[in-house]
Design brief:
Layout (H helix, E strand, L loop, with lengths): L1 H35 L16 E2 L8 E3 L6 E8 L5 E4 L11 E11 L4 E7 L8 H13 L5 E5 L4 E5 L15 H8 L4 E2 L5 H7 L3
Parallel strand pairs: 1-6, 4-9
Antiparallel strand pairs: 2-5, 3-4, 3-5, 5-6, 7-8
Amino acid sequence: MNLKRTRPHANLLLSTMMKLNGEALMANLKDLLEGLRITDDSIGTKKIILHVSIRKPRRTEFIRVRKEETYSMLAEVFENDERTYFFVASETKNYIKEFLKPFKLCLAINRHDEIFLWPIKLSDKNKPNKWLDTAMQSYEIAKTNWVRIASNMTTGAYETVKPLSELPEPSWPDLSFEEILNLAFKNQKIDSPDHPEIKKIRGDL
């Protein structure tokens, strides 16, 4: 009789112990999974830049330019009809000379830490051009200020817009300008008379 009375209590005790052990097991498993999870805070990371675009600033982005003169240069560059920019090797310049234009190539960065090479076409001193002149003025302002560069079709010139609030200084990558140029023109070189762009100009394509 006594054994029959105590059996329900034993079953309840066994059930409670199994429940507690199960909860403890789940808690341990959760801790284990949290310990295995990889977060950005648990490992040190550094972005490796594999490509640098050659483009003008987008009309909706705020940009800065690197103010040191060592991060800009004057160069003759070929711009095709698709607005793709090409470095032209000295031994092939004669094949495409009439299409080369002088540019100021400068390093720029936006708020997303995306760097790009900004090609600013130089104006002819004998033929003033408000688009080119105001682009260069915007470049000078962007050395020390975040700016957005917008086209004003009415005035035929660029407008330089500053943000309403103070923005932090840009975080520039640890790359030399030579390294940036190599990344930018890596796949945009004209170094042979057989290059497709030269063939297109000749009518071979």
